[in-house]
Automatic annotation (TrEMBL):
<dbReference type="GO" id="GO:0005130">
    <property type="term" value="F:granulocyte colony-stimulating factor receptor binding"/>
</dbReference>
<feature type="signal peptide">
    <location>
        <begin position="1"/>
        <end position="16"/>
    </location>
</feature>
<keyword id="KW-0732">Signal</keyword>
<dbReference type="GO" id="GO:0008083">
    <property type="term" value="F:growth factor activity"/>
</dbReference>
<dbReference type="GO" id="GO:0006955">
    <property type="term" value="P:immune response"/>
</dbReference>
<keyword id="KW-1015">Disulfide bond</keyword>
<keyword id="KW-0325">Glycoprotein</keyword>
<comment type="similarity">
    <text>Belongs to the IL-6 superfamily.</text>
</comment>
<dbReference type="GO" id="GO:0005125">
    <property type="term" value="F:cytokine activity"/>
</dbReference>
<dbReference type="GO" id="GO:0005576">
    <property type="term" value="C:extracellular region"/>
</dbReference>
<dbReference type="InterPro" id="IPR009079">
    <property type="entry name" value="4_helix_cytokine-like_core"/>
</dbReference>
<keyword id="KW-0964">Secreted</keyword>
<dbReference type="InterPro" id="IPR030473">
    <property type="entry name" value="IL6/GCSF/MGF_CS"/>
</dbReference>
<dbReference type="Pfam" id="PF16647">
    <property type="entry name" value="GCSF"/>
</dbReference>
<dbReference type="InterPro" id="IPR030474">
    <property type="entry name" value="IL-6/GCSF/MGF"/>
</dbReference>
<dbReference type="GO" id="GO:0045639">
    <property type="term" value="P:positive regulation of myeloid cell differentiation"/>
</dbReference>
<dbReference type="InterPro" id="IPR040117">
    <property type="entry name" value="GCSF/MGF"/>
</dbReference>
């Protein structure tokens, strides 16, 4: 319940965030609609991977794994700029792109855990790269500052001390990514209502 309150609370503050310079732009609204759908598809693919982890590895409930999580070094991409009272599209979009990059690399952990579903992981990674590219292009079109990331993944993959830790790490990578996508989706949806 506390998690639900924490996840929902920032959106009350976001509701009044001004962004008048973008709200009437037809191209920007079209970008938002397309990428809301894209984000929804990515969320569905992550949910499918979560079901596979549950069915294949019998790792289904986060609360049962919290003690093990303390021993793992799993990155959680920040998105605080997407739900601050001083919301700015530029910083939010930059954080979304940075997070997509982090999770893109982390999905190699999932591919190793579920080798029979490597195609789904690769499709998801391609969709993530395309979403990041779409956001970068929109930022450039709006004259916002962008960061271009190198094509090869520079971030080291998490290391695990045991196969079980690898499995639990994969579970939390997907859980964190799903929360990240939910926040990104809410930010994009919020922009459509301005």
């Amino acid at each position: 319940l506390l998690l639900a309150v924490l996840l929902c609370a920032p959106w009350r503050a976001l509701h009044g965030a001004p962004l008048a310079e973008l709200s009437g732009d037809q191209d920007f609204q079209l970008f938002l609609q397309r990428n809301l759908e894209f984000t929804r598809k990515i969320r569905g693919d992550v949910a499918a991977l979560q079901r596979l982890v549950c069915d294949t590895l019998q790792l289904c409930k986060e609360d049962e794994l919290l003690l093990v999580r303390q021993d793992l070094d799993i990155a959680q991409a920040p998105l605080e700029q997407c739900h601050r009272r001083t919301f700015q599209a530029e910083t939010c979009f930059s954080q979304i792109r940075a997070g997509l990059r982090i999770y893109h690399g982390s999905l190699a952990t999932i591919r190793a855990l579920l080798p029979g579903h490597a195609g789904l992981v690769e499709t998801l990674q391609l969709d993530m790269a395309n979403l990041s590219s779409n956001i970068q292009q929109q930022m450039e079109d709006l004259g916002l500052a962008t960061v271009t990331y190198p094509t090869e993944n520079q971030d080291p993959l998490p290391t695990f001390s045991s196969h079980f830790h690898h499995q639990v790490g994969g579970f939390f990578i997907l859980a964190n990514f799903q929360r990240f996508l939910e926040t990104a989706y809410r930010a994009l949806r919020h922009l459509t209502s301005l």
